[in-house]
């Protein structure tokens, strides 16, 4: 608290204090996703406002015109209708200027066969990469002169819920293409939990049995599942996936 008062007395704005707070914290599941304003290939956005009352996936890239990311952006473009069905928006981020993104998008469509219709954030000052704990605070303030190797940690997938909280974080190395079918599967699972208070077992797929979460008492579960459930152990209550 004393440090905050000192910074305020020194003329540091409240907005800057919030940003500094996020830069010095490690993001975790159930933390509020840091809000930001940024230029994208579809104009200026205010992140939380852009999400609205739905879900969002923010996935980041260390540099434009990188081979693995080219395949990823194209695949996500092809999957976008599936995410839309689930009231989930897609937004990409790359540590380069928006003008580069537009040129890269042409390469993506040519080589991957899908047009990128979702926005791509430009982060040439590295501000958002730092805000999301993907680069250290001392990484500098410009993408100029930096290589993909310098930005290797900017390879994260965030799923953000309607409450603006982080529901999932996946971090990948540069050499491994991300599995966005898995991200879609996880989104289905998270949305089931939000709606029906169930969890999904290992390797679960749509339509398979689910697990009643421990927070639901047996009495409450009987009201929701009058036909009962399978319980190989008292804490493992298995029911068909709710519709």
Anisotropy-based shape = elongated
Instruction: Determine the strand fraction and express it as a percent band.
Output: 15-25%
| Secondary structure tally, helices | 8
When the domains are counted, the total is 2
Work out the radius of gyration.
21 Å
Q: What share of residues is helical?
A: 25-40%
CATH topology of the largest domain: Glutaredoxin
Overall CATH architecture of the largest domain: 3-Layer(aba) Sandwich
What would the keywords be for this entry?
243 residues; alpha+beta; Glutaredoxin; Antioxidant, Horf6, Chain A, domain 2; 5-stranded mixed beta sheet; 4-stranded antiparallel beta sheet; 35% helix; disordered N terminus
Question: Layout of SSEs?
Answer:
Blueprint: H1 2-9, H2 14-23, E1 37-40, E2 43-46, H3 47-51, E3 55-61, H4 67-85, E4 88-94, H5 98-112, E5 120-122, H6 127-131, E6 156-160, E7 166-171, H7 180-196, E8 198-199, E9 210-212, H8 218-224, E10 230-233, E11 236-239
Parallel strand pairs: 3-4, 4-5
Antiparallel strand pairs: 1-2, 3-6, 6-7, 8-9, 9-11, 10-11
Describe the structure.
The longest helix is centred in the N-terminal third of the chain and has 19 residues, at 67-85. It is elongated, with a radius of gyration of 21 Å. It folds into two domains: 25-178, Glutaredoxin, CATH 3.40.30; 197-239, Antioxidant, Horf6, Chain A, domain 2 (2-Layer Sandwich), CATH 3.30.1020. It has helices at residues 2-9, 14-23, 47-51, 67-85, 98-112, 127-131, 180-196, 218-224, and strands spanning 37-40, 43-46, 55-61, 88-94, 120-122, 156-160, 166-171, 198-199, 210-212, 230-233, 236-239. The strands form three sheets. A five-stranded mixed β-sheet has the order 5-4-3-6-7. A four-stranded antiparallel β-sheet has the order 8-9-11-10. It is built from eight helices and eleven strands. Helix 4 (67-85) crosses helix 5. Helix content is 35%, strand content 20%. Strand 6 and strand 7 (166-171) form a beta hairpin. By secondary structure, the chain is α+β, with helices and mostly antiparallel strands.
